[in-house]
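USER:
I wish I could look at a protein chain and see how it folds. I am handing you a single protein, as its sequence and its fold in token form. As I understand it, each token names a local backbone shape. I hope you can help me see how the letters and the tokens relate. The protein I mean follows directly.
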Amino acid sequence: MKRGKKLIFLLAVLIVLTGVTSICLRLNPDDLDDEEEEGTVILSIDSGDVTEISWTIEGEQLEFMRSEDGWTYAKDSEFPVNTAALELVLSALNEITSSKTIEAVTDMSEYGLDAPAYIITVDETETYEILIGNETSMGGEYYLSIGDGNVYLVDSSVPESFSSDLYTLVQKETLPDMTEIQQFTIEGADCQMASVYTPN
């Protein structure tokens, strides 16, 4: 008799645990499907195929062109472009995902896209124009347009990638290793001084 009661009790506990587990799985956001978690890919541009890119930041347009010799700044071909820094900017275009789509928008001004904070133009196999407008009221996401009539919500990594100004993209000169210097010369308007350094 006692054994029968014990089995009934264990069965009841098992049923309760099963029910609790089922409820937890329904409430756990980690069990959302991958598409909802990761968002929808709205634009994918192979950065290796980009031949020209320009963007406007604080009223200044930055434009770069790629040739066989690498990247050049359109306004000054002698400007030393930091290729690694520019490629990092381009990598933001490899896959732009959206957490929400607002379809068939008739008034872009509601989202700051009539006077966007960023205008990004990319020439690949075709030309793309990407507009980034206001930050959403909840924060952390921005309104974006790719010219198809819809407005997309994207995370802040997209505008942050294009917040670089010109001088964050300059290739800085590397100073020589001072321990290997054998001689240095200082020249001025009124004098010239040379010094010989002999390492120990």
